[in-house]
Amino acid sequence: MVQINLPQNSKIKKGHYYRDKTGSKNLRKVNIYRWDPSTEENPRIDTYEVDMDNCPSKVLDLLNKIKNEIDPSIAYRRSCAHGVCGSCAMNMDGKNGLACTKPHSEIKGDINIYPLPHLRVLKDLIGDLSTLYKQYESVQPWLKTTKKSDNTEHHQTKEDRSKLDGLYECIMCACCSTSCPSYWWNGDKYLGPAVLLQAYRWIIDSRDEDRKERLKKVADELKLYRCHTIMNCTNACPKGLNPAKAIAEIKKMLATS
Ligand code: SF4
Ligand code: SF4
Ligand code: FES
Question: Which of 15, 27, 154, 241 is the most buried (most CB within 10 A)?
Fold first, then answer.
């Protein structure tokens, strides 16, 4: 039997324990993945006791409280705090999601926070999304038309516009792609659910004139057909979108074209 061992320097160790100093009777333990590339040290899990009487409701509030009041060295991405920018995506309580929309009251017991899975970690909760962004660029996510707009709008019917519902809302947070086993193992070649949903968004846009080329570009054993309809992506999407369905629609279009 093949035995796979992790390299010694990738093993996660027990980290620092930050005891509460407020005297609060309403404490929760928060365990956070930490790794600093500027040191030679292994990743570790730091534990913080947090006074929940003075903490707003979301996991991002909790992280901000820890950073502001206990340990300013934690690194994580965030910007809008309203589920719009996608930057605070991380793994909370074993599930990918947006820290700014996830209520910590939904997590029972200790609160465990990790970076999005199967990404190279840049620091603490920050994963490297550069491959995903290159793949996103490869599907040319912009309107391709020869019609001159003269700075006016490109019109479409209400019916055509409604075909973009469930797609245009995607905020490219990567929760879906980083929960997809096919993307874990073939992330350098398989485009993954986030990028394929975006590809489909432009393929079915009635104003776009590049449908055939777009379909041809994704019609590839590795780029598209690595999806095995496992559905993790759809379960993970914090915006309630269905990337697995978008992928199935692309496959259907290719089969019937
Ligand atoms: S349905 Fe396809 S894209 Fe979604 S998790 Fe499964 S393999 Fe990945
Ligand atoms: S489909 Fe959902 S999970 Fe995937 S990138 Fe878009 S918003 Fe995030
Ligand atoms: S901070 Fe923008 S989505 Fe969470």
Answer: 241
